[in-house]
Structure formats: structure tokens, C-alpha cells
Amino acid sequence: MKIELSEVQQAELLRQSIAGELPDEQGRFGPFGGRYAPETLMPALARLSDGIREHLHEHSFQAELNAELTQWVGRPTALTFARGLSARWGAAVWLKREDLAHTGAHKINNALGQALLAKRLGAERVVAETGAGQHGVAAAAACARVGIPCAVYMGAVDVERQAPNVDRMHQLGAEVISVTAGDATLRAAIDEAFRDWVSDPERSYYLLGSAVGPHPYPYLVRELQSIIGREARSQMLRLAGGLPNAAFACVGGGSNAIGLFYPLLGDADTELIGIEAGGTGSGLGQNAATLVTGTPGILHGSLSLLLQDQDGQVRETHSISAGLDYSGVGPEHALLKLVGRVRYEAATDDEALEALRECCAAEGILPALETAHAFAGARRWAADKRGKRILIGLSGRGDKDMPTLSAALRRDGAKEQAA
Ligand SMILES: *Cc1c(COP(=O)(O)O)cnc(C)c1O
User: Is 370 in the pocket of ligand 1 (CB under 6 A)?
Assistant: First the structure.
């Protein structure tokens, strides 16, 4: 599949993106997005679209959501001047602190919003999918708060690898369903969650974890995560004396990045840069850099870029950070790349580790390994520019990554001894 647009078409889609006119009625972001789902799923998706239109921007729903974001999630999250990194990089570096949100990452903004929506729509139970378990924990917490039962599908391989998050979900009252089908990881878990939803779409609500999937999910998740960018934009104007020259966010499925970037799309003097997982190298299977190296295709109900081989087989990915380890990406990012509004680059496992250590030492903040990719990208950008204002989306905290970080320390120690 090849997608080519004329310059006139690109300019018009850029205008529509900035004006907030996308997705269109069919859920399309230009050539990307849409609703490529089995017939059995279509009525449930249509009903969800209707529910969103009726409730999401309605006054009493927004009032309830905002009260919970303030009292329970802890919003607004801080904007922190990164004194140590600024001195090292020769720039003014500001951090939008989603690590300070309840459960330790931006994922709660989406989970809470959708759990409240599920309740509004009269659902009696929520189903969700999770890979590394971070979205499962956020969904379990949000459902407990809202008072609705929650079942989380998780690949059997991930259940094994991510035992602490499985325990956390259990403590929060969720049922965790281990999926042995397919690759027994995130992709299979998503398939099973959709299947569960289709079997009872009136009573169930499917709470999807990133800005991916069939319409209306990429739109819904963007709307719920845009609070990151709205807060950061006004905090930059108030505290930093102006908008950033460049803003950075890591990109897995793309929810924290679209949340930070969307309110900044119209600020033409702000460069927007998404950083993907460069893994161990540029070969297929060695990374999860979907926007940098992927090709158009359909995965989980939408047309976007994805990592596939020449026969269209979706390929396994690799990243040191579980949250970036996904072969697809949200369709809005594919469009923002196509029209040139956002640039996408990759940072390798090693660059992310180094950036994480620098942030710990310079700022006293342990970021998530996912987030560390954004720091690596920002650091590279700052190297040949001085005195610029940089905004980094600090999507989550790194306590969950301690086993990986300890193993990396031991490995590096062994290497040094051998040398
Ligand atoms: C899950 C996760 C991500 C990646 O997901 P997106 O949808 O791309 O934001 C990034 N950072 C953290 C801390 C995460 O937990």
C-alpha cells in the first residue's frame, strides 16, 4: 500500500489538523484512521460514537471529570524547570510532570475519563487490554474509583513477565484474564478484549489504552489526554515566559505525545518532535520505530503506519521499554508526519538508558524508560542550539523499571571489569 498526496492536499490537511477539524465523520485523519473492524463490532463502535457525541463535551460530564482530575488524579501536574539539565545542555529545559499524576503516569487521564464515560453510558462492566500492565493498573484504579467491575486481558507471556502489575490489578479489584492465543502478548490481548466486548456490547464497555484502534478511540483518547498540552501551554506562558521552541514526547501508541502536541499544533514557532524506540538497531525486529521506518497498513481497526514485512505480516518489535514495544501507532501521528507538522526520530535502548541516568543525577527525578527516549531526543536537539526553550513531556515515573535498570547496571559493570 502506497500513500501519496499532492502539496495542495497536504496543506489542506495541515490546516484541518490545526483547526481541530479532524478526524472527519468517518474517523479519518486524511488517508489514515477509519474503522476497519469486523461487522460484528460495527454497532458497538457506532453506539460509542453516539455516546461520546452526547456526553463527552457536555457540561455536567466535564464538571465531574474535572473534579476527579483535580481531587483524585492530582491535576494540574507541575511544570518543573530542569535546572541541572539546562546548565548541562545550554538550554532552558522544562518538564511537564505526568509522573506526579496518580498511579505514576499519564495513562490515568484516559482511564479515568473512559471509566466515567462507561458509567454514563450505562455499562455494567469494563473490559480492557494491557501489555506491560501499566494501562491495566490505571484502568483497574479508575474502575474502582468510579465503582464499576473491570476485567483486564493480558497475554500469558506478559502475565509471567509483569507479575507485580498483575498483583496490583488484583489488589485494585480487577479480574486479570490470561490470553494464551496467538503471540500471547499485547496483540492477542487486544483481540480477546474486542471479542469479549462484541459478545455483550450493551452491558460492557471497552476501555482502550492508547490513541490507536478503530474510530472513535484515537479521537476519544486524544480528547482525554489533551489536558497535558493545555496545562503545559499555559504553564509555559506563565512560568517560562513564552512557548517552547521545541517540545518532545516519547511515542508508543502515541497517547501522551498527542496529548502534549495537540494544543500546540497551531503554534507555528514551536517544533514538535516525537521520539520512538530505536531498540538495538534499524533492522526490522530490532526496534519499535513505527513512524520512522514503518509502512502503511491496517492493524487493530485503523489504517496507520506499522512494522510489517514485505508480505504484510506484522513483525515483532524490540524495545528496552515495554510501553513503547508495539508494532503500530496512532493514525493521527501518521498524518502529522505526512503533512510535516511533527518530526519523528528514534532513540536507541542505550541512548535512553544514558538519558535516564542523566535525568536522575541532574534533577533527582527517575523517569520511566519510555520517557527517557524523549530526554534522549531533546538532548540531541539541544546539542547544536543554545539558549532555546525546551519542553519535555515527562510521561511517567521509572520505579516500575527497576528490574530492567538493575540488570543494565550489572551488565555495564561486567563490561567495565572485562575491559
Ligand atoms: C504506556 C506508556 C507510554 C507509551 O504510551 P503512549 O500511548 O505512546 O503514551 C509512555 N510513557 C509511559 C510512562 C507509559 O506508561
Answer: yes
Architecture field, domain 76-104+225-418: 3-Layer(aba) Sandwich (3.40)
pLDDT band for 412, please (50, 70, 90 cuts): confident
Q: What pLDDT, on a 0 to 100 scale, did the predictor assign at position 416?
A: 82
The predicted model gives 97-106 an average pLDDT of 98
At residue 106, the 3 state secondary structure works out as coil
pTM greater than 0.85 (yes/no): yes
Classify residue 286 as left (phi > 0), alpha (psi -120 to 50) or beta: alpha
Question: Where are the CATH 3.40.50.1100 domain residues in the chain?
Answer: 27-70+107-221, 76-104+225-418
Q: How far apart are CA 344 and CA 273, in angstroms?
A: 6
Output the CATH code of domain 27-70+107-221.
Answer: 3.40.50.1100
198 CA to centre of ligand 1 in angstroms: 27
On whether the CB atoms of residues 258 and 241 are closer than 8 A, the answer is: no
Residue 135 CA, closest ligand 1 atom number: 1
* 369-382 and 349-363 helices, crossing angle to 10°: 90
Give the side-chain half-sphere CA count within 13 A for 185.
13
